[in-house]
Each structure stands twice: as C-alpha cells, then as structure tokens.
Write a structure and sequence with these properties.
7 strands; 1 helix; globular; 6% helix; mainly beta
C-alpha cells in the first residue's frame, strides 16, 4: 500500500520518470539473426539483468560477421514503452554499435524490421550506454535492434551487453491519461462527481 501511495503522490506532482517504470524486457524472449561461433554471445544475455560490459565475462550477445545483423526481444504482450537503455560492449570495439536502429511495434514481418523506426545510435562516441526516452510513448510487443548495411568486407557484428525496455502493459480501453504525469485531480480515475 505504501508503494502505491508514493507512486500516486509522484504521479500527481508530475515527477515520475522513466526509472519509475518496470524493465519489461526481463520477462521477454530474445533472439538474433545468428550467433558468433564461440561459447558466448547468446541473444538472451542482453536481457539477463547483468550490465557487465566485458564480452569475455559472458553476459553480452554477439552475432557473427555479416550484413544487417539484428537482435529482438519479444515482450510477450503489447506494452506502452516509455524508454529504452542499451549497454554497449566496453572492453573493445565500442564503435561497432554506431548506426544501430531501433524498431518497435507488433509485427514480426521482416524479423520486426517493418515496425516503426523509433530511434537510432548515430555515434555513441565511446560512451557505455545509450538511453532514448519516447515522447510520446510508443507501443509494441517486439523491440528489434539492427545494424543496417555492411562494411567493405561485408562483416558487421552486433554486440549488446544489456537492453532495458521500460514501460507498462497496454490494454484495450485503458485510460492512458492515468499513466501520464498529471497535475490535475480531474484525471485521477475517481468518477465521484458529488
């Protein structure tokens, strides 16, 4: 009850941030275009809750060198997504992630790449993380990350050390105003009109 009260106070004061939402990727199922040929690099490593960005510690994904590598998480239901945080490899090759595109939607057509493009990492400039807050929020079941194109030797490697997707379940007929920052009691969900 106390957590609900704190949430309602923050909601009414308009101070809720992306951090107050749940990382819904932790319950999802991950897949990728293929896997680098070693003991590491599984798609599920990016949603294991471990932010360690040293590839050789075994908690990062990695595709084999090819054109247009992709990674996707199925959130198992449609969510209103408020933000995404991507943890890059930190031990070496940090620039490999530059050009990454983020697609979110409810379709698996073309491995989810036909869903709307909602963000891109142009150049991470050596930073370990990338966060994109969606205003307005986006909705979808599938979050697909892709490195489009190819290099001169046709090899691109997609390595992700963690992908956190924050949001809340989308429901048909849901009053979305209740999920947004509010300063008026008029949208507190109370139908009492005395």
């Amino acid at each position: 009850m106390m957590n609900l009260c704190v949430f309602l106070v923050l909601l009414l004061l308009g101070t809720c941030s992306a951090a107050t939402y749940e990382n819904v990727a932790l319950r999802g199922k991950a897949t990728q275009s293929d896997r680098y040929n070693d003991a590491f690099g599984a798609a599920s490593n990016a949603i294991d809750g471990n932010r360690d960005n040293n590839y050789y510690d075994g908690s990062c994904t990695c595709t084999s060198g090819k054109s247009n590598p992709w990674w996707r998480v199925d959130l198992l239901d449609s969510y209103i997504i408020t933000s995404i945080t991507i943890y890059n490899r930190g031990d070496k090759h940090p620039a490999r992630i530059n050009g990454l595109k983020i697609h979110i939607g409810n379709s698996l057509e073309h491995n989810g790449l036909n869903n709307p493009l909602v963000g891109q990492i142009v150049d991470l400039c050596g930073k370990p993380t990338f966060t994109k807050t969606f205003t307005p929020h986006v909705e979808g079941r599938y979050v697909t990350l892709v490195l489009p194109g190819s290099t001169p030797d046709s090899k691109k490697y997609l390595t992700l050390c963690e992908v956190e997707v924050y949001g809340y379940r989308a429901k048909t007929g849901e009053n979305l105003a209740l999920q947004e920052n509010a300063t008026l009691a008029a949208i507190d969900g109370n139908d009492d009109r005395k």
